[in-house]
């Protein structure tokens, strides 16, 4: 064993003195006596005392915690800190006296218990959350179905109203997607047997504040995204009708100029103040009969 220096010896003696609670001089005396093992006996006794003090302190804290929880839950106070779960359960079984005899407990008393009421509140909250989630999912599904339904009509409208499609497939796909995106958020309702379009809770109306018809809605949708072609046959027919005068078309109610272009035709149908329903129906019939086959 290597020899300790004088400083190391002094440090060791001071440490031992602090541990056993005695002066350093007395520690030196014991070490140089005929029975130096006495110092080891004192060190062991001191360590044992420290451990016991720590254990007692810990048990004291456990006693307080156990008493607090036992009194809170079961209305009893423990005389000793439990050394195991089994001990704690036995103390509860012996000391717990329920406020109400279970044999005479009524349904109303159970429902008034704080624990039952808390559980009931939790269940109602979960039910409300589930109902809300279900309603949101149903709303999403209805919106998807509505969109798919309108999408089919919108694609047909491209042909009906003569949209000029791009020969570039990628460009056309992009433009068509932008076109269809305008349908998002649109809902349809049947009112008095007529289809109405709604967005964000408001009815889609024309400039005269009437609900837009299906024809008006999709026609404007197409013209807002595409260039619309006017056929030579339609223009030629319109020119001939203009030369012969409106009376030559068999109109009884419509007194204006025969429409030559899509724009003039739309203007007549939208002007409800100037043209009666019968007049507009005459123009609609004339226009459809003169579409290219």
From TrEMBL:
Keywords assigned by UniProt, alphabetized: Coiled coil
Coiled coil is among the record's keywords: yes
Regions of compositional bias (Low complexity) in chain numbering: 233-252
Segments for region (Disordered): 230-267
Coiled-coil portions: 116-151
The protein's name: Uncharacterized protein
